[in-house]
Write a structure and sequence with these properties.
This protein is α+β, with helices and mostly antiparallel strands. The protein is built from two helices and ten strands, in the order βββββαβββαββ. The radius of gyration is 17 Å and the shape is globular. The N and C termini lie far apart (about 45 Å).
């Protein structure tokens, strides 16, 4: 007896879509603490999940406004990172990291309605003291993409093959 494969168009698998911002200022980048997160790094890039039928870049602008009082738009896409499901820890997801430019005089503040605990400018050389595992690798690859002008496709923060070699940023 053969089992019939489910139709992915009629019964799609659940997948989280995340949108994150790489915001830099000279030698620093903006990081947020996520007190609700126990299965992944407690510190990471600002952003959040897209709602049903919401474009990732629009979700990012919404989260930056709602959680950090920042009126900002997603710039060029730097990284797409696929995170396979880890039962009991987190669902499968695809994370988009966009470059976001802010004027030097703009300072983000955590809102009461947001889910971030704290916002902090972190020296690039100290990022590994805040983020761990695939979150850290995603940040490092995002910085490389921002500085090189290239785009990276990742699996748990690790570049797929040599996709950075000659793929221009989107």
């Amino acid at each position: 007896m053969s089992e019939e494969m489910p139709d992915p168009f009629k019964n799609p698998s659940p997948r989280r879509v995340g949108a994150h911002a790489l915001i830099t200022r000279r030698t620093q980048l903006l990081m947020v603490s996520r007190p609700y997160s126990v299965s992944v790094s407690r510190w990471g890039l600002p952003g959040g999940s897209a709602l049903a039928n919401e474009l990732p870049r629009r979700a990012l602008s919404r989260h930056l406004d709602e959680r950090l009082t920042l009126r900002a738009s997603a710039g060029r896409i730097l990284v797409i990172d696929h995170v396979p499901e880890q039962p009991g820890l987190h669902r499968e997801g695809t994370n988009y990291v966009y470059e976001v430019l802010l004027p030097d005089d703009v300072e983000p503040t955590v809102t009461k309605s947001g889910r971030f605990g704290e916002v902090r400018w972190v020296e690039r050389c100290e990022v590994s003291s805040y983020a761990v595992d695939h979150s850290l690798r995603r940040i490092e690859e995002s910085l490389v993409a921002a500085e090189s002008g290239l785009f990276a496709e990742l699996l748990l923060g690790v570049p797929l093959q040599s996709n950075r070699a000659n793929t221009p940023a989107m």
